[in-house]
């Protein structure tokens, strides 16, 4: 069985891409012709996926955009669509789950059994024992929040304990304690490029999922300079809104393709 | 409009109870006669609710038990059942959500618009700006993880920054920065009773949701001594498995009632 980590490394190589596209379809922002359809989110995603699949290494649907409007079924169909048509592209379910053991088992089942995602994002605040039920799925990826991209992320993540910010404590444990099955990644925001450099030093070749390029304003060249591994990979550069809403007209899919191709080119120029 | 905080205070008084019952129905643990029904979780919950409603101040369904098996509809029906039949009892959706602004808005919509919960649990790791979209629902409650009940909760929550554990930084911000609309509560595990005492000092009369009595082994008298406010309220003592699985036979509802009544009596003896 191919593990998430192997699938991701293969995808980086064969796709020649570090670009991850976030599938966060907000009904209010969809093109008018789609908005009225009962499965508008899925139809939108399908067109976005078909248009961008040549330029991406992975997709990352954010579950809240589906669960807020009782559209879990469209999330299931979206993931299935990728796995049937683009089986080489891993799907990361962005859910930022976390809870005590028995409940974490249920969340892991949600992500890996129900939705069949290749990886899921999780929140480390409750401690490593609450991540164990996810990590036991050794063929799946578990991507732990470390330093997030939002303006207030430093409020706790930057607090220093033993001369070291909390985010680095998370990175250090991810690298030395939790990664027994080599199935961990970390979320580090493009908006904190110095942190990408420091965290890369702590975690070696571990995959880093990098939100914050695009709408949030992170600087691509600095992110790559600070985050690439020696093999010039190691990063999932995520873009959501700036790709999927590149146009709000009927040309949304072509515009998303153009944007994805363009960003992938930019990324590869700086590699 | 009655806010969550007002509804909770009224419930504490009129129900003469600080007991919150967690509705975490695991299909594997349900009585055999229910297990085969297509809406087994809802049928189980309905019997548990009817049996325990006299002894509780609130209910707390944990969403993962529903989403893991595509049973969101049964969660909706459970919450609606409480709100129609026991409108004086607040419903806390235990979801431990958290994400950057636009996504947090979707999670808030999931909890408050889709499920119509009176309150939701959230994770503070990403910082106060990520809690704002929840807090803007000023009539709803936002219950922030502070010191959780699991054995490994200290891994980050106990790290000390500026001579003060991270959990206390969370409590301090909850009390002084985030509680503009008086709609915040905190999760503090019964398994760390000294922390309940210290956090109570930081947050004054703020409601504390206390998991960890029952199966997890927290000590009730110490929890009450350390956590009660001057008005002898302020606590939501949560029990899930030890009440809802008090019996695995066809007498599960009566057994749950007996257990809830008994625990409520114990709680009130120590108040």
List the keywords.
homodimer, 271 residues, alpha/beta, eight-stranded parallel beta sheet, two-stranded antiparallel sheet, 13 helices, 10 strands, 46% helix
Give a summary of the structure in a few sentences.
Chain A has helices at residues 4-15, 32-35, 40-52, 64-67, 72-85, 101-114, 132-135, 154-157, 166-178, 193-203, 220-227, 241-244, 252-270; strands spanning 19-23, 58-61, 92-97, 119-122, 141-147, 160-161, 164-165, 184-188, 208-210, 235-239. Chain A has 271 residues and is of the alpha/beta class.
Describe the structure.
2 copies of one chain form a homodimer. The first copy, chain A, has helices at residues 4-15, 32-35, 40-52, 64-67, 72-85, 101-114, 132-135, 154-157, 166-178, 193-203, 220-227, 241-244, 252-270; strands at 19-23, 58-61, 92-97, 119-122, 141-147, 160-161, 164-165, 184-188, 208-210, 235-239. With 271 residues, chain A is α/β, with parallel strands linked by helices. Chain A is globular and about 55 Å long. The two termini of chain A are 30 Å apart. Chains A and B meet through helix 4, helix 6, helix 8, strand 6 and helix 9 of A and helix 4, helix 6, helix 8, strand 6 and helix 9 of B.
